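= Protein in question =
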Amino acid sequence: MSRALGQDARGTLASIGSSVAFGGIYFLTPLLSPAPAESIWAVRNIITIPIIALALVMARQWHLFGDVARLMRRKPWVILGVLVCGAIIAAQLWVFAWAPLNGQGLQVALGYFLLPLVLVLVGRFAFKDKLAWWQWAAAAVAAAGVAFEIVRVGEISWETLLVAIGYPIYFTLRRVIGTGHLGGMLWEFIVLIPLAVVLLVFELSSGTALAVNPALAWSVPVYSACAAGALVLYIMASRLLTMSVFGLLSYLEPALLMIAALLIGERIIDLEWGIYLAVWVAVFTILGGGISQMVRARRPR
């Protein structure tokens, strides 16, 4: 029992630490101006590789990296799957830096709020997961908010869709090709090294951003290392916690991203509140249902 409680405590701290780190990184991203998001992504991609490798070694899971290599040799089509997964995660990391640099931080935060709800629906219809009534209710409320926004402005922002739709495609594809672990993620970063190097060479040859803000020479690598560390904490939490607890704690990150976006000067205006209120109602419905379910599961019978 004490060992299980210790594991829960470590997992909870790792999850909270990850969310706080991502929120802090999001808030500080504008300090990296005028560095383009493409260059920030390139540095982050390269620096994340040794940190993921170290995490695999420390967790005694380095064999997962070799497992993916053998899988790709045995089934060459898996290489294409890894490339597609790499492109999707690269787009997510890119927009995470691009949004706060360009005044679209709230749109990305909204995507992270919608993401768990989309995953619930993907699990139900793609993998035949069973849903509780409160999960259906939350999804319906969120869908109503999205419908309201479409009627109001005719569309949902591409930044929101990239996060809310892109990640479910990413997770589903990783499950299908058998690379849904840290070893698979390491390969996804490795296959994009050539693109990252080209972008860095292009940026360094122009020298424009560094000339305006010389601190970028150290601030971008530190930013990237902190982001990689937050990612490792996130993966650690997913291994230590039950799926229900991990899912509930995952809502802390978009809440902090939203606060960070507001602190750096973005504003929710006029009828935009409609979709945000709907999503918050959905979030609290999920939280309430999940907590209630956990309490009932722990009651002695």
Residues 2-298 form one domain.
